User: Which sequence fits this backbone?
């Protein structure tokens, strides 16, 4: 029973919201650490790969109108294997939500709520996102439609203020170390783009499913441009060697803005204001998809109970890692799982589809 | 039936009244405007390495209103300890109110400490979430604490005075270097380059900001005079405003002073490798107007061109002198290391570890062109 419908714009904003998350703050640092000054090139490359993956997904979605991966995976791969795939997705989504909530809580604690326990921050974010999830996909879409353009606009506005002190020469030399480091850092960069795979789940909700690919590419494009912009600005402002060392370069470049003439000369609060919705909205879709999968597997009509039941599980995943580096390791595992799923599942689905189609036509 | 949820809501309301539990009233905060870090001088105290002085300021005093004139709104509190953070915490055993580092404007480092390296002392300021990369960084000749103890005229808070001095000075003269924040220093230092930080000298009632402290990595290795800093800023193209005076040695020395008011400068470096030695060519373009004198009240195109040439030659001579001096010292303060990384990447990769030696033998050419655009409203 699917009543909710999404327009093309809503769908791409959903995907944009899922892709742009906590990573915004720390992404340039990881990129530069692995690829040096060519970090921004890797993003473009990863974006290209994401587009390929997403076109396969859209192709599948268009073959099964009105159905999502939850319905057609068991059809194509057989009930057992199909369920295994869905369970893998479920595990991935729950891990993703857990680690993301924890990462956001850590940043929030560092910069905003110094004395609040991490558990409280985690719970606060989870309650907010769960409330949204209970209202269904349409409410999430409307929320994103409102908050994402606003946050993006504020972020871009603040970023223009950094331009004064940039030295774009710092981005030189392009490919000075050859193409190899760029390729090597590819997986870690690709992780930061994860989130577009919700197209598999979003497709049946779309008003006009044939526009799915278009919205997905738009979302990937926006994310890639935003990430590349942040990376380029970070390097141009601070130099690659410095960006490597800074935990949250995107915040650092905004901290270096001085509003002339005023005694209190800070814009980083704007960045935090922008970043909190980015972080919260990126968990919403994953949490929602996780409860959708479970509801389907258990044969439930409604996802609400499940999504409430997942709150304690996600909470546990979020508070179990003992320190920042352990969180990083958990998120690394999650990302590998996600990247694996994103690369292998659509491919195997399409192979299965072709194989079946051929068998049908030959008989 | 409807009364029960309303009632329970009513009982929940008082929790909202509690407000923000982490709040600190602004009157209770002491704003730290400036911080001075010195090396502890006595050697017998092995545990204590840093002497940390924070200039604590009443929030009211910053607005210029002092309610009780008998109580000083400024207090330089000191503590010694093995790490900066411990010093800050030791301060709380002496200061009864909460120091607030969010608006820290300037860090002053004493000469002794600078000679041993400043990176570790600044570590907390890179790391802590309260601090920003825009905090100014100055090296004091002598002890940094004494700078905060100054009692400058017109401005009651010495930290504010020095911070304003730096901003004003940067807009009007080029007598101290442009690298002046901890963020910029960190970029240079972690990028493997050397830099020049502003130097500060203490005089009776005021501070004098002039010249630069040459930092090899994070260690102070020497000083630049204010004229040398001006030359350095010609070379790296940051000479945005200031003056360049040429005194000609002749029989009528006094009359031959030409003052060039610089309005803008640009500099670009070209690098190439010739016979395994890097060759750099600086091309400097300066622009400005004639501030004083110049043409004996009879301006002509020929004279103007002559003056331009003189100024250019003067800048070039100074620059060559500075470069020779730095090559002797083996400190590359001209950003040539970064230039090599950008444009001669393979060579840079080969020589990044012995750059000081390579720099010493580098061939550096300078090409200066200046333009006098105007000479005021009087002939």
Assistant:
């Amino acid at each position: 029973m699917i009543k909710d419908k999404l327009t093309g714009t809503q769908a791409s904003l959903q995907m944009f919201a899922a892709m742009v998350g906590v990573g915004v703050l720390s992404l340039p640092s990881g990129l530069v650490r692995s690829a040096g000054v060519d970090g921004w090139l890797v993003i473009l490359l990863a974006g290209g790969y994401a587009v390929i993956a997403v076109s396969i997904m859209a192709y599948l979605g268009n073959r099964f109108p009105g159905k999502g991966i939850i319905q057609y995976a068991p059809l194509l791969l057989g009930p057992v294997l199909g369920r295994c795939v869905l369970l893998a997705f479920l595990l991935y989504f729950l891990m993703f939500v857990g680690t993301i909530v924890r990462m956001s809580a850590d940043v929030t604690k560092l910069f905003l709520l110094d004395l609040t326990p991490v558990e409280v921050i985690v719970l606060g974010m989870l309650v907010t996102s769960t409330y949204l999830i209970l209202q269904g996909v349409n409410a999430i879409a409307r929320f994103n439609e409102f908050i994402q353009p606003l946050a993006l606009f504020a972020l871009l506005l603040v970023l223009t203020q950094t331009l004064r002190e940039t030295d774009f020469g710092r981005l030189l030399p392009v490919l000075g170390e050859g193409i190899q480091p760029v390729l090597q850092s590819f997986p870690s960069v690709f992780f930061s783009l994860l989130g577009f795979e919700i197209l598999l789940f979003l497709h049946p909700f779309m008003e006009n499913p044939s526009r799915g690919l278009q919205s997905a590419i738009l979302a990937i494009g926006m994310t890639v441009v935003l990430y590349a912009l942040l990376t380029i600005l970070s390097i141009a402002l601070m130099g690659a060697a410095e960006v490597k060392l800074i935990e949250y370069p995107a915040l650092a470049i905004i901290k270096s803005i001085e509003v002339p003439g005023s005694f209190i000369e800070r814009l980083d609060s704007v960045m935090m204001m922008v970043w909190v919705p980015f972080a919260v909205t990126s968990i919403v879709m994953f949490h929602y998809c996780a409860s959708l999968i479970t509801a389907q597997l258990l044969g439930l009509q409604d996802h609400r109970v499940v999504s409430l039941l997942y709150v304690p599980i996600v909470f546990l995943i979020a508070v179990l890692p003992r320190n920042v580096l352990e969180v990083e390791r958990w998120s690394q595992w999650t990302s590998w799982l996600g990247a694996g799923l994103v690369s292998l599942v659509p491919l195997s689905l399409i192979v299965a589809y072709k194989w079946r189609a051929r068998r049908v036509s030959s008989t | 039936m409807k009364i029960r949820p309303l009632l329970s809501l009513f009982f929940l309301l008082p929790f909202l009244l509690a407000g923000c539990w982490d709040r600190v009233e602004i009157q209770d905060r002491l704003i730290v405007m400036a911080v001075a870090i010195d090396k502890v001088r006595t050697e017998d105290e092995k545990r204590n390495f840093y002497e940390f002085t924070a200039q604590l300021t009443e929030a009211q005093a910053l607005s210029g209103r002092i309610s009780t004139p008998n109580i000083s709104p400024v207090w330089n509190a000191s503590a010694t300890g093995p790490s900066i953070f411990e010093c800050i915490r030791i301060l709380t055993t002496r200061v009864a109110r909460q120091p607030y580092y969010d608006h820290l404007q300037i860090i002053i480092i004493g000469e002794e400490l600078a000679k041993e390296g400043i990176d570790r002392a600044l570590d907390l300021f890179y790391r802590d979430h309260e601090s920003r990369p825009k905090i100014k960084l100055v090296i004091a000749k002598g002890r940094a604490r004494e700078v905060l103890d100054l009692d400058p005229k017109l401005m009651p808070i010495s930290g504010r005075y020095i911070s304003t001095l730096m901003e004003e000075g940067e807009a009007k003269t080029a007598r101290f270097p442009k690298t002046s924040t901890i963020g910029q220093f960190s970029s240079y230092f972690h990028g493997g380059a050397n830099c020049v930080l502003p130097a500060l000298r203490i005089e009776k009632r005021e501070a004098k900001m002039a010249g630069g402290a040459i930092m090899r990595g994070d260690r102070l290795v020497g000083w630049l005079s204010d004229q040398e800093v001006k030359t350095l800023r010609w070379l790296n193209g940051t000479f945005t405003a200031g003056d360049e005076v040429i005194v000609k040695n002749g029989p009528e020395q006094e009359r031959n002073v030409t003052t060039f008011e610089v309005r803008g400068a640009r500099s670009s470096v070209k690098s190439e490798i010739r016979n395994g030695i890097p060759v750099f060519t600086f091309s400097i373009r300066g622009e400005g107007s004639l501030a004083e004198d110049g043409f004996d009240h009879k301006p002509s195109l020929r004279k103007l061109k002559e003056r331009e040439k003189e100024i250019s030659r003067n800048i070039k001579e100074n620059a060559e002198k500075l470069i020779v001096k730095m090559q002797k010292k083996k400190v590359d303060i001209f950003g040539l290391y970064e230039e090599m990384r950008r444009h001669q990447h393979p060579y840079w990769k080969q020589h990044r570890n012995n750059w000081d030696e390579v720099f010493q033998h580098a061939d550096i050419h300078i090409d200066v062109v200046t333009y006098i655009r105007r000479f005021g409203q009087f002939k």
About this structure: The CA atoms of residues 321 and 329 of chain A lie 9 Å apart.
